[in-house]
Structure formats: structure tokens, C-alpha cells
Amino acid sequence: MVLEISSAALDAIVADANASPAREVCGLLLGTRVRIEAVLPCRNVAENPADSFEIDPQALIAAHRAARDGGPGIVGCYHSHPNGSATPSARDAAAAENGAIWIIAAGGEIGVWRAVSAAFEPVAYERRR
Ligand SMILES: [Zn+2]
């Protein structure tokens, strides 16, 4: 199965990452199992945002509440690696929830991954309008 990702979502992730070259940016991926429609940029509240991220828990709670109330589903998260590659770090693997989609932006590259048993497998995706 090829995951569809809207151009708007991909462009928003790259723009968010490019606007913050010294610290990791992060946010939520909204949509369904087969298509990521939009992103919700969130505050990175990690103690050391230069090389780690933690999505603002308030934003996370609000997004889950909205999803329960019929809003867009949360299918995963994105973040950036300002000085790294678009592959997940060991810390990322430890934090990943099984089945979640993770998008990592690094230096204009995009990596799309699915968390499986505290590890990641690459996800085939297609940019669609
Ligand atoms: Zn990371």
C-alpha cells in the first residue's frame, strides 16, 4: 500500500523545518491510514530542542479531543533533524507508538516511516494534491 500525502502537508513540514535551522520542529499528522491530509505544527517543549523534540502535551490533548469529537484523525507526527539525516534516531525509536507514521525532515529531504515494535520501517508514499 502506498501512503498518499497531500502537497500542502509536505510543503508545510519542509517550510516549518527550514524556518528553524537550529532547533527541531515538530507537529502532528492529520488524516487517515491511507492519506495524510494536513499537519498541525506544535511547540517543541523538549529541554534540549537542538537535538530532540517533545510535542507540547496541551496541543496533543487538544488534538486527541478534537479527533474524538469528529475532527481529523491523528496518524502520527513529524519532526526535523536540523543537522542530521531523515532517518529516525535511537531516541525516536524509543518514543514511537506502534503503527504511527513518522515523518522526518532534514536538509530538504523527507523520510516517511512507520513505527513497528520500537523500530521503524520505511513507508512508500506519493505526493498528491
Ligand atoms: Zn528525531
From TrEMBL:
SMART domains (alphabetical): JAB_MPN
InterPro entries: JAB_dom_prok (IPR028090), JAMM/MPN+_dom (IPR000555), MPN (IPR037518), VirAsm_ModProt (IPR051929)
Transmembrane stretches, start-end: none
Domain MPN span(s) in chain numbering: 3-129
Keyword entries, A-Z: Hydrolase, Metal-binding, Metalloprotease, Protease, Zinc
Protein name in UniProt: M67 family metallopeptidase
Domain of life of the native organism: Bacteria
PROSITE patterns: MPN (PS50249)
